[in-house]
Design goal:
This protein has one domain: 3-Layer(aba) Sandwich (Rossmann fold). Strand 9 and strand 10 form a beta hairpin. The protein has 5 helices and 10 strands. The chain is globular and about 45 Å long. It has a 6-stranded mixed beta sheet with strand order 4-3-7-8-9-10, with helices on both faces. Strands 1-2 form a two-stranded antiparallel sheet. A two-stranded antiparallel ribbon has the order 5-6. Helix 2 crosses helix 3. By secondary structure, it is an alpha/beta fold. It binds guanosine-5'-monophosphate. Guanosine-5'-monophosphate binds next to strand 2, strand 7 and helix 4.
């Protein structure tokens, strides 16, 4: 993913030793060509996993998620962070601590979109401590479905999420791994 690496290095803004801002191509303005490439790359990496659904979390996971679902020819579900008035049916709920907002919130998915037998690929924009990915994985497991893998656009490898998810037995594929954000500089693994 040469294009993604270039974008991260050229357009990423180091907000602190811990936080990278990528609002010019992923978190605010979005680059569709890049999203399409990301989707194709996740589809290639997880081609042998018989994926039946892609699951992400609103809002920044939706663009890479929908392109991955398109490339795999399956549906995308996004977990909602706020309860919607139209989400009246039975829901799966999990509590997730938000890394960027520094607060816990409940994420929800309608029970009608996940079922036993589904093999679910979880996709998200960033991986830090793994809270969002673990929350999504717990929803998949509540449904009696299986987590077939986790695809991350940017992993901050100096934070523990990647190791914790691997230790829990999940296959994690990150397209870019950031080794350090120290001294205002982005260093990749
Ligand atoms: P985790 O749940 O793994 O602790 O954190 C991942 C979630 O927090 C992602 O869904 C992402 O929205 C947000 N996040 C964590 N670290 C960063 C970061 O450095 N930059 C941005 N833009 N989002 C982040």
């Amino acid at each position: 993913m040469k294009l993604l690496v270039e974008k991260v290095l050229q357009e990423g803004i180091v907000l602190s030793d811990q936080v990278l801002k990528v609002d010019s191509f992923l978190n605010h303005q979005m680059d569709p060509e890049l999203m399409l490439e990301i989707g194709r790359e996740f589809a290639r990496l997880f081609a042998g996993e018989s994926i039946t659904k892609v699951l992400t979390i609103e809002s920044s996971g939706i663009a890479p998620g929908i392109m991955t679902a398109l490339a795999l020819n399956v549906r995308l579900i996004f977990a909602r962070k706020r309860k919607s008035l139209t989400l009246t049916e039975d829901i799966f709920v999990e509590k997730v601590y938000s890394y960027t907002k520094q607060e816990s919130s409940e994420i929800t998915v309608s029970r009608k979109f996940l079922e036993p037998g589904d093999r679910v690929l979880i996709v998200d924009d960033f991986l830090a401590n793994g809270e969002a990915a673990f929350g999504l994985a717990r929803i998949v497991e509540q449904a009696g479905a299986e987590v077939a893998g986790i695809g991350i656009v940017i992993e901050k490898a100096f934070q523990p999420g990647g190791r914790l998810l691997a230790d829990a037995g999940y296959r994690v594929e990150s397209l870019v791994r950031v080794a350090s954000l120290a001294n205002g500089t982005i260093e990749l693994v």
